[in-house]
Amino acid sequence: MSTDGLTVEVSHLTKRYGEITAVRDLSFTVEPGVITGFLGPNGAGKTTTMRMLTGLVSPTSGTATIGGKPYKRLARPSGTVGAMFDANAFHPGHTARDHLRVYAAMGGHPDSRVTELLHQLGLAEAADRRTRGFSTGMRQRLNLATALLGDPRVLLLDEPGNGLDPEGMAWLRGVLRGLAADGRTVLISSHVLSEVQQLVDDVVVIRRGELVAAGPWSRLAGPPAVLVTSPDAETLAATLATSHANAGTVLRVDTVGPGLLRVHGLDAPGVADLAAAHRLRVHELVTENTSLEQLFLDLTTGTLTNDRAATS
Amino acid sequence: MTHLMRAEFRRLLATRMWVGLLIAAAVLGGGMIGAMALVGPENFDPPLPGLDTETGVRSLLGILGYTAFVPAAAGTVAVTAEYRHRTAAVTFLFAPRRWQVLAAKLATYAVLGLAYGLVLASTAAAALLTVAAARGVTLGLPAHTVLALLGRISVAMVVYLLIGVGMGALIRNQVAALCVVIGYLYMGETLLMMIPGVNMLYPVLPGGATAALTDFTYVADAMSEQLGSATIQLLPPAAGALVLGMYALTAAAIGLVLPMRRDIT
Ligand SMILES: Nc1ncnc2c1ncn2[C@@H]1O[C@H](COP(=O)(O)OP(=O)(O)OP(=O)(O)O)[C@@H](O)[C@H]1O
Ligand SMILES: [Mg+2]
Q1: What contacts A266, CB < 8 A, 6 or more positions away?
Q2: What is the total count of domains within chain A?
Q3: Same-domain pairing of A59 and A177
Q4: Do A91 and B10 touch (CB under 8 A)?
Q5: Does this complex have an ipTM over 0.90?
Q6: Domain that includes residue A259, residue range
Q7: Is this prediction's pTM over 0.90?
Q8: Which of A81, A102, A108 has the CB atom closest to B14's CB atom?
Q9: I want to staple A270 with a disulfide (CB 3.0 to 4.6 A). Which of A266, B5, B131, B238 is the partner?
Q10: Mutate which of B93, B99, B101, B102 to test chain A, going by most A C-beta atoms within 10 A?
């Protein structure tokens, strides 16, 4: 599906505002066909990076390209990239339709697209109301509609979930998944990990303007942990340890409580098979996701060791 | 460019600002000139020459030049609204060649300025000629000269609207820009004239150049008299037009060049 996908590339990007270095020697790529989360705590430099990607802010040094070209040199900028920043970027006296019609004209997109998007994004009823009365959810929808006017192959969305209620988030996830499934390149920033963890395939994590980690979510999150309930817990722990000393893989077994183990580095079938081979009883096996919040916290506070925070 | 102009027209027509502006033109043109003609300049305090004299007619029309802050303010509001409501970022996303955005705005607002000027001039002409006829006064200038002077005022209004656009692009903060534009045109220039020596610059300042268009010497004369200085000589109308044109060009150049590399955050 990603035959005509465009790669977003940030290379040695730096932005200084006087004393403050908002972004420092940042490099990463965003691939088509997947959703990439651009994560970092407040003030990490996410918005600044995305503004440099779209030519709104000039980098102090480094380059940011979309499909190999800087944004300003794209032949059809709004037909190639849909970007969304401020949730409040509307003239309060304009209706949703007015707003979209202005930008449809500006980008040379047909007016039929305006009606189409108003329906598609659930704004049909609010179409002719002035934006000053819009709720946060409606504003985010209108913002997204504006970004989608040119049916772009690349989406750069800065905190699209900001202020959305759970229902709104679920809706947004659905829309974004659909867009990525069509082979689009989707980058969404967030300072709240839990907001995007069910959504993103890849992640780029930055802190204080610098790259902390980048790569597929599954790799960065590490293998899932397995919670094992067994009356033979002690023996099982010892068996697991010796078997893996031979296999040479990294495995960690923590005793959580009486008869309860947490195994890192081996999945549930692996644990079950091993137990069966040694005639040990297992009453319950629960696959735990690595606490993603914990990972994010680790990444952004720098406690994570370098071998896991791979910087690809 | 046609895309950008279509977008700017849509933006302009989506709010009722343009209606208000044209109503203001009718009120200032027809309403104000009609009322002043009805009272008669000879009954002003201090009195001006009557409508049956050339100076009287020129003065009445010259006063219209002082309403130029209205279209200038409209231009300023229009451009700064993009920064105030933070749509500038969206606009520059859709049109990353920023000078084209400002060029489209200048072109669009030149049309609005022309509409403003035409409404102002035509209602003023109608009011002046009607009142003169009603009062049985023969105007000190032939009707076609009155219309020609009003035509020049219309063009001056276009220029002022563009100056407003340029200043808005320069200052960006709506309130600050409005204070500068209205403050200068409404009061600033007059205050400047109080400074000895500086008043010699009056003929080449926007107000002086506008006055030159209609050969409206009242302010210049009053100023010379008050300050006891040598008579301040207005430029010939054509030179006044040239000076105004230069102001518009400068404002446009500011509008085109300044946003080029500025960060939009
Ligand atoms: N125009 C500016 N002038 C000065 N400093 C700026 C400017 N814009 C951003 N900064 C600074 O650069 C740093 C990065 O800001 P940025 O908005 O990119 O962070 P962010 O990751 O988007 O944060 P948030 O999650 O709060 O949106 C911050 O320290 C911020 O104060
Ligand atoms: Mg931000």
Answers
A1: A223, A226, A240, A244, A249, A251, A274
A2: 2
A3: yes
A4: no
A5: no
A6: 223-288
A7: no
A8: A102
A9: A266
A10: B93
